[in-house]
Amino acid sequence: MVAVTVWNEYVHERENDAVAEIYPDGIHETIADALAERGHETRTATLQEPEHGLTESVLDDTDVLLWWGHAAHDEVADDVVERVCRAVTDGLGLLVLHSAHFSKPFRRLLGTPCTLNWREAGERERLWAIDPDHAILDGIETPIVVPEAETYGEPFGIPQPDEHVLSSWFEGGEVFRSGVCYRRGSGRIFYFRPGHETYPIYHDETIQDVLANAVEWAAPTDRGVTQWANVNVDASE
Amino acid sequence: MVAVTVWNEYVHERENDAVAEIYPDGIHETIADALAERGHETRTATLQEPEHGLTESVLDDTDVLLWWGHAAHDEVADDVVERVCRAVTDGLGLLVLHSAHFSKPFRRLLGTPCTLNWREAGERERLWAIDPDHAILDGIETPIVVPEAETYGEPFGIPQPDEHVLSSWFEGGEVFRSGVCYRRGSGRIFYFRPGHETYPIYHDETIQDVLANAVEWAAPTDRGVTQWANVNVDASE
Amino acid sequence: MVAVTVWNEYVHERENDAVAEIYPDGIHETIADALAERGHETRTATLQEPEHGLTESVLDDTDVLLWWGHAAHDEVADDVVERVCRAVTDGLGLLVLHSAHFSKPFRRLLGTPCTLNWREAGERERLWAIDPDHAILDGIETPIVVPEAETYGEPFGIPQPDEHVLSSWFEGGEVFRSGVCYRRGSGRIFYFRPGHETYPIYHDETIQDVLANAVEWAAPTDRGVTQWANVNVDASE
Amino acid sequence: MVAVTVWNEYVHERENDAVAEIYPDGIHETIADALAERGHETRTATLQEPEHGLTESVLDDTDVLLWWGHAAHDEVADDVVERVCRAVTDGLGLLVLHSAHFSKPFRRLLGTPCTLNWREAGERERLWAIDPDHAILDGIETPIVVPEAETYGEPFGIPQPDEHVLSSWFEGGEVFRSGVCYRRGSGRIFYFRPGHETYPIYHDETIQDVLANAVEWAAPTDRGVTQWANVNVDASE
After folding, report:
1. Which one of A32, C31, D55, D216 is most buried, by most CB atoms within 10 A?
2. How many angstroms separate the Cα of D52 from the Cα of each of B60, C178, D10?
3. Where is the ThuA-like domain (chains A, B, C, D) (predicted)?
4. Interface pTM (ipTM) of the complex?
């Protein structure tokens, strides 16, 4: 059992009826329920809460943080971003979802533009296993098919991934690295592309299974063991 | 100007009229002409020649070797394979083309199965830049479109590439890492997917430009400088 | 509990009294005992047995294979090497020890010369954690100190590792990547430098702990799930 | 010829007589002279200048930026740091020197703590080639010996490097990845460890040669070609 916090900017669901119909309680609640059903201990946090619900104590009690944002990246306070990034390098797992490719924490931790091509055309997506033995694909049959999705296309402005797990095919002619892993300090980061506010993708059982696997994968095993600090050391005996 | 040897098993063109019509003198001659037009010094070699045309002296006079094979991988003599692999780790550049993903030298140098999914359906292929700044894409507009191609699909049984340059989209629903780079010893290896015997793909100007760029990229810069040997060394002063 | 086979060429111990004194039953028995004490199910195999003790059935019953060789690399039959390499890409874990950097299976799986500088001077070695959070270092205090060791030095003729876990410092002035990880097909490979026939290094508790951790890490989790084969597939629905 | 700007916080040289004796005009001038002698077009900038001497126009006219800092990392304005990081992802080359491992731009671009162990004991350092064929080592004999150096030790809190060029051995018992390469967007980054304010290391011919090679390596080849932006694209024909 992993202690999970699902963070959502929670804007579209409150302002757009079509989105509210798919995610009446917000994307965060749908994901949190799916992870709870799979045995994880979940809580949620949103942009609107004080400190966006990501206080030091919440982060201290969290093993893996999921991040969903799209319309309000700039409204996330820089000190909270710094706190999250420091927590990640101290061992917090981070799952970055869909349009959060452009979120402040992801761009800060990767150091790259994290830009891409995109198109809203309700196209069919197929996610192929690049690394079929990866723990995140444990028990997952590939290709994973998403009947209607927002299209993302390369080039994706990210560093060479430490592990490349999945790539997507889109009906309209694009490909995209949809599942990539990074290590930053003691923390593990997984970017997972599927999931747009106007499609019920986070209600899909297989997508939920991938997220649950990723939570297991990203959970810290040596949390706090490695002290990342400049240390003045003596010469060896 | 780079000294290039284009190797071809040269089987389909001699046994299949449809292939002979597209490549009357063999795929090797078409590629060699294209590279010569772009300023490289080219020669060819085929399976049917003594030592498959890859004697020590030919390899010594070669900076970059291109390898095309499909139907006769097993007919390539193991001692020639060993000679080619040793030349690569000594600095020879190697371009591995299309169905040569399953050739003895490529599998020997990578150490993996190099297997994939495939389908002969004359589907449209689009090659996207994953690393648009890579030297192999210098002056190349992406996506590169191939109107009719054999389809390859992931998972591709290769090690994590040192550099991932291109990925393909196929009309029928597959994706594939179509341009990947490896370093082995002092040698540089580029696998490039396009090019099937039943399609005129090697007559395409853009495909020829990519091959010419790859030849430049793979050409040894420090040829022979690094002596890969177990050396008994003295302690430092 | 992991099913482990410890392979040893078993030459020095039978021909050299000084070595026999340190490893009376052979290096393989010392390592097998240490892994058994740590809960693994162990067996051994040696060069002198039929098929070097590595029959198909032995490999089928093995999760992780440890390989120690030094004086007799060339005496290992190529068909056994092919069998071992295929087993690795099918998911067998492989731990490559010390002078086995130059063994046929390691060189075949990496595709590089695997050469290095060396010196037999009984120098002090310190192994530093490059990746202190890695599972192979779970519970291990670094630097690991080996009072007397054969010295290895860079450049080490290997591909860029998938994971770089440890690097060594040597009294005489060398550094070396002493713990590196590779993925080949479905198999995991760990090269671990310490351990020379003329020093009691495999009797060291910490070295034994690292080997036990590496066995856990290399054990297949998806054994046999991924079928690495060229497959003719239909177009997607 | 590459357009180089050498940036220095320029604090120690003005406040410490011992340092001023070694670098009377500042570390930046010594490095700039060495690069100019090797054919590069050089200018300098320091912390004390308006915008730290790194205005948009200076960065626009710069191909490769060298960064030296130690005592005043926190005094570098965040908007200048952002400007430099954006310039890097747009193609600017960045050479990060010695104690600048802890500078704001390096930590921002890597996303990790960038921490290490250290000791000021005037120890002997030997830099070994991990990748002897790398362009940055063109014509350089290794090991490079630095008679007296500040000691750095692993673990170094950086992401897995894209290329690992050099590692250091220190008299007192440490090892360190002293030359590592990263790609961020279109920019190339090289971290090079040698060079402390209390030792005349930047007066060393070989160290200067490495810096000149690194400038060549980091210079943008496709500057401005790749526009890293989120782009709404049409479906393919």
Report:
1. C31
2. 53, 43, 11
3. 4-218
4. 0.96
| Chain B residues within an 8 Å CB radius of D143 | 236
**Residue in C closest to A169 by C-alpha:** C236
Q: How many CB atoms lie within 10 A of CB A200?
A: 15
Q: What is the pLDDT of residues D124-176, one digit of tens each?
A: 999 999 999 999 999 999 999 999 999 999 999 999 999 999 999 999 999 99
Q: Which two tokens stand for residue A100?
A: 């959060």
Return d(Cα C105, Cα C5) in angstroms, integer: 15
The residue whose two tokens read 């004991």 is D121
Only one residue has tokens 């080039």, namely A155
Q: For residue B178, give the nearest of B200, B198, B197, B158 by alpha carbon.
A: B158
Mean pLDDT of the C66-73 span: 98
Helix (H) or strand (E) holding B191: strand B187-192
Chain D contact residues (CB < 8 Å to A): 85, 89, 102, 108-113, 115-119, 121, 123, 153, 155, 157, 159-160, 162, 172-174, 182-185, 226, 228-236
**How close C216 gets to chain D, by Cα (Å)?**
23
CB–CB contact D236 A108 (8 Å): no
Residue of B nearest to A177 (CA): B130
Task: Write the pLDDT tens digit of every residue in D44-75.
Answer: 999 999 999 999 999 999 999 999 999 999 99
The tens digit of pLDDT for each residue in C147-175 reads: 999 999 999 999 999 999 999 999 999 99
Report helix, strand or coil for A7: strand
- Measure the CA angle with vertex A236, ends C200 and D114; round to 5°: 110
pTM of the model: 0.97
> Could you tell me which residues of chain C have a Cβ less than 8 Å from any Cβ in chain B?
85, 89, 102, 108-113, 115-119, 121, 123, 153, 155, 157, 159-160, 162, 172-174, 182-185, 226, 228-236
Q: Does the distance separating the beta carbons of B108 and C111 come in below 8 Å?
A: yes
Give the H or E element holding residue D160.
Answer: none
Please indicate whether, in this complex, the C-beta atoms of B109 and C113 are within 8 angstroms of each other: no
Burial label for B139, CB within 10 Å (0-12, 13-18, 19+), is: exposed
CA C164 to chain centre: 15
Q: How far apart are the first and last CA of chain B?
A: 43
Which one-letter DSSP state was computed for residue A89?
A: H
Q: How many Å apart are CA D1 and CA D41, to the nearest integer?
A: 6
For residue A20, which phi and psi values (nearest 5 degrees)?
Answer: -60, -30
Phi-psi group of C224: left, alpha or beta (phi > 0 → left; psi -120 to 50 → alpha; rest → beta)? left
Three-class secondary structure of residue B134 per DSSP: coil
Q: Please confirm whether the linkage preceding D143 is cis (ω < 30° from 0).
A: yes
Strand pairing class (A231-232; B3-8) = unpaired
CB C123 within 8 A of CB C148: yes
> 3-state DSSP: chain C helix, strand, coil percent, rounded to 5?
30, 30, 40
